[in-house]
Structures are given as C-alpha cells and as structure tokens.
Description:
Alpha-Beta Plaits; 26 helices; 10 strands; transmembrane helix; MMPL family transporter; Mycobact_MmpL; MMPL_dom
Amino acid sequence: xxxxxxxxxxxLVLVVQLGLTGWLGFLGATLPFDNRIERFAVHHGDQPRExxxxxxLFGHTDFFLVALDLGADPDEALTGRAETWFxxxxxxxGVADWFSMARLPSGDQELDPEFVPxxxxxxxxxxxxxLFQIEPGLAQGRVVTTFQRAARExxxxxxxRRAVVAGExxxxxxxxxxxxxxxxxxxxxxxxxxxxxxGFLFRDWKVLVVSGLSIGSSLACTTGIMAQAGxxxxxxxxxxxxxxxxxxxxxxxxxLVSIGLKKSIExxxxxxxxxxxxxxxxxxxGFGSLMxxxxxPISAMGGYMAIGIWIIFFWAHVTHLxxxxxxxxxxxxxxxxxxxxxxxxSWYQGLIASRWxxxxxxxxxxxxxxxxxxxxxxxxxxxxxxPDHPIRVQTRFLQENVTGASHLELLVPLxxxxxxxxxxxxxxxxxxxxxxxxxxxxxxxETRLVGLEDVHHVLSFNQFLNAPLRAEGMLVTDLEAExxxxxxxxxxxxxxxxxxxxxxxxxxxxxxxxxxxxxxRYGALASxxxxxxxxxxxxxxxxARIIEIQHYLLRSLSTSLSLTVAAVVLLLLLLFGRKAxxxxxxxxxxxxxxxxxxxxxxxxxxxxxxxxxxxxxxxGIAVDDTVHLLNTFYRNDSEAFELRWRRTLEKDAxxxxxxxxxxxxxxxxLMTSSFGPTRAFGLLLGVGxxxxxxxxxxxxxxxxxxxxxxxxxxxxx
Length: 717
C-alpha cells in the first residue's frame, strides 16, 4: 500500500510558522519587567511639573531602608559589625549614596542617637537602620534582590535577629516578581488547562495541538514584536498575553466549530473569515483608541493589541492551512443539542418574547455604572499583597519600630535668592544667607510637620544643624546670628554633599518619611501640608507621584473604554447598515460590564488597574460573540424571526458556549494566586464571560425580535 503524498504547501506553511513562533517567542520570553514610576509618568498637570522642578534641582530620590534588629542594648562590637555590614552593602552597584549613624555630620563631638532627626540607632531596642539612595534604572530590581539576599544571610549568620528591607523600590520589585509569577506560573497553567478542556470537549487530541499552535503563535509573535520594539512588561502591559489568549481562543473555537459543521477545512475557513474579519476590525479599532492616552503603558498596550488582533486573525486561519491539513483534522464539535434546540423550548420562548425583560439589562447597566463611580480605588500597592506577605510584614515592622515606608518631598521657596545670584554663588554664601534668614520660620514649619498623623520624620539641613545642640537643650535659633552662621558654614564645609542635598538654588528641601497611604489618606495629608507650608511650596516625591499616576491611569482607562465602546458600536452600525440598531449592539455587550461592576461591589473588590482592564476584555469577548451571532442572523434576512434565530443558534450557539466555558474555567485558575490583582482578575473575568453569554442568548434575541425596536412592521402570526 502506497503512503499518501505529503502536502508540500501545508508543510511549508508549518515550517514557516514554527520558525517565526520559535524566534519571536524566544524574544518575547526575554521581555523585562519594569514597574518604576517613570514608566507610568504623564507629562501634563501639576505633579509632573513639580517633579520636573525637583529633579532638575536635586536629581532622583529613590531610596529604601534597611533595619537590623540586633537585640536590646547591643555591645559596641555588634554595632560595629552592623556598621561594617552597611558599608559593605553600600558598595553594591546601583547604590548612589547612603546614610547611617556613623556617617552623620557631628563636628567635633559625638552625637547622641536620641537627638538625631532620624532613628538611625535605637540602643534600647537594638535596631540599627541605614538609608540607601538608589540610582534610577532597570538595575533597581537587582539592587533590591541583592539586599534581600544579604539580609537573609545576616539573619542566618547571627548578625541580626531580624533584617528588614522596605521602601518603594522594594514594593516595585515585589510587583515585578508577582507579575513574573503570572507570566511564568499561572499563565502557562491557564493555557494548558484551557487547551486540555478544549481537546476533551472536542474529543480529539488534534484539536488540542492545532489550537495550541495557533494560540502559541499569536502570543509569540505579539510579545516578540514588543521585544523587538524595545518595550517592557509592567502592571498594564502584562495583561497583553491574557488578552491575546482570550481573543485567540475565542476565534479558534468559532473556526473549529465551523470546520466541523462544513466537514471541510477550506469550507469552514471560508464561512468564518468574514465575521472574524469584522471582529478583528472592531477590536483593533477599540484597542487603537487606547493610543490616545498620554500614559505610555496604556498607549503601548493599545498599539500592540491593535497589531496583535490581526496576528490572531492571521494564525487562526493559516494554522489550518498547515498543521491541520498535515494531521488530517476532521473536527467533530460537541453535540450540545439542548443548546442548539433552545428555540424549541417553551420557557426559552417566553424569555425572549416578553419585552419587559429588557428592563433587567438596562437596570443592571445603570446600577453597575452608579456602583462603579462610587467604588473605592486601590492606590496603595502594598494592599495588592496578602496581610501575611513578607512585604506587608516587613513594612509593618518598619512603620511600628522605625519610620514610614514611603516618603514625600516638600520644596519651600527661598525668595531672598534673587534670579541670577545662583550663578555668582560659587561657595553657597548667597543661598546660606537666604536659608539662615528664614531659619526660625523653617524650624516652626518642621516642628508642625512632625506632629502630623502619618508623618514619622522630617529630614532637612536644619534638622542636622540642630542635632549636636539638642543634647544641650538648644536649637540653632537660640544662637547668636554670628554663631549660627559659623555652625552652618562648618557643617557645609565638612559635609558639602549634605548641604547641597537639602538646599539648591531658590528651594529648600524637606524630606518627609510617611506611612504608605491610599489616595484618601494621602489627600488629607497633602491638604495639611499645603495649609502649613508657605505659598508656592511644591509637594512631590514617590508617594505623591504614585497616587497621581494611579488616579490618572484609572481615569485614562475609563475614558479609553468609553471611546472603545463608542468606536466599536459606530463601526458595527456602518458595517451592518440599516439592519442593525445601536441598542442591539450596546445592551447585550454592556450588560456583562454592569455585572462585573456589581460583582466588585458584592466581593468588596476595589477599583485598580487590573480590575478596570477586565471591563475591556469582557467587552471584547462579548462583542466577538455578538458579531458572529448577528452575522449569521442577518444572512437570512428574508425569513421570519423565529426561524432565523433558530438557525443562528444551530450554527453559533456551540461556539459561544464553548468559548464561555473554557475561558471561565481557565481563568478560575488565577483565583488561586496570592497576588490580589491576579485573583480579582480571574474572578471578575469569569463573571464577565458568564454574563456575556447570557446577554447574547437572552437579551440579543429580545431586541432582534422586537419590531418596534428594530424599526420594522410586525410579522404576521
């Protein structure tokens, strides 16, 4: 018996596909994670302007704290070992500067830790703390990881009972690791589980293999293009693989069912290329609207997804011209006869006949929008982690025993420094004069700031000036003007970097060490700072920037989602012509979004970047299914509504149900994550999938079957 001839063209298609997938997949796997504030920065508004002024005067200010618990009343030998350990860690590449008790400017006398403006050393508790300033750049994660590893070794070696590393760069690195966990652990499990489900439902391993290659090629090509363009992953763009997976699987299911119904690969592809083209067109337009955002990650996600949906469209069809032909794929879709025969059931006929049921989605959409507007936002990155997570535990230790885990920068103007004096002031005399003339008012301001709730310490040049005198019950303001100037100039000459750290040009810097706050508590603190500070003072720093950026991200994503909905509905109206009505496109597809909003309220899930993205994904998959149903429905325009809808269910109901089932069960895997945003993402997306299915099978026929809503004459009985 002769062997069947190999389809050379199909083999060539497969080889090219495997080559592209392997090459671009390798590039995509190397995408770095970068959740630094600068990645999300916007370039308009007060906060970016104030940060730009601060950066121009003082440079970057990213720092973290390391606290060693040496035990109560440690001896000099142990504190010496701790100081040596700090000095060794300060040599880590990426550390720009550091402060500890031994490095404080003390003049000719020894400083008493009790009177230092920051608790670098607490003898009674035995806690020794150092502050490390870190250089900006992707290397921050490596620096933090090095310190965390060294802290664990310090505990094992007996140097400290406990070693704590905390601060914004530490939280950012934890966010990076959690994002990596999603990419390297949960996402592969999700894909494998979904494909196994798909193969089981179709009862054919070939379906699993072909679907896996199609989805894998789409993921590899999209992330590979991102890598080629020099992009990185962050809390926003890390959702791109999930989006590609969802849309790719949905399109693949529709193609597979069509191939099974037509009993031909070519016939199935011909039948689905047009509705899949419509889906790709509307989805790419929707994601393209995100490119209007001035937040770089959102704009990048919109651009890459606009490209990615066409990559999905390409591989969803081309894979069948290669691997499917070589395997001799003969799809046998699940029967699901109860679903295909819904139109024959009296209870279903009653559901899609009573127009009063249309008040249900309208009410859910309205109530969901109302709830979402009032839903609290999550702007504190620490709350993304469970209470027993090491980041939360170490931050609590730091805030209970040392100081705040975050910080703000308050820049107070020194108006006595006239324009141009800075250029003549080679030794800082003019700036020093302006500072000393306002010292009493600055001392009063700093005293009030330390008394604010959530403010632990204020670091400033004035505080370090006062440190040697506090042991004698004095402040610099108690000295005569001549002695005050002599002390300030001595400190400036012995530690000039300290002077320039806090006084530059016409601004005096106050560094406030505060608790990690959410937006509401930060707003209250910022109001107090503005009330106490002189006019024209500037508030910036990592906490202020994080709060502002997250607020803008949420607002930008909400605006972009609105633009996406409007653009998709308008395009579909143009494509389907006068046959379609806006409400037939909006109500079934906005209904799952209302359900997601209500689920957030019921499960007490705060609005965050990841939860807002669920709305875009749920809307995208709902529109996908709606387009397929409408395309089939409008093909039989000459027939009565009941017959047209029956044929629509017979052809597309299985694909819609299978997509919903596989994605819902697949994303349920994410609910096992310890990372809050990932867990909420899986739960809410499952809710969105289920109610998108319900909206298409209940409310869509309700709308299509209403002569009044569709603008046509009633059909005869």
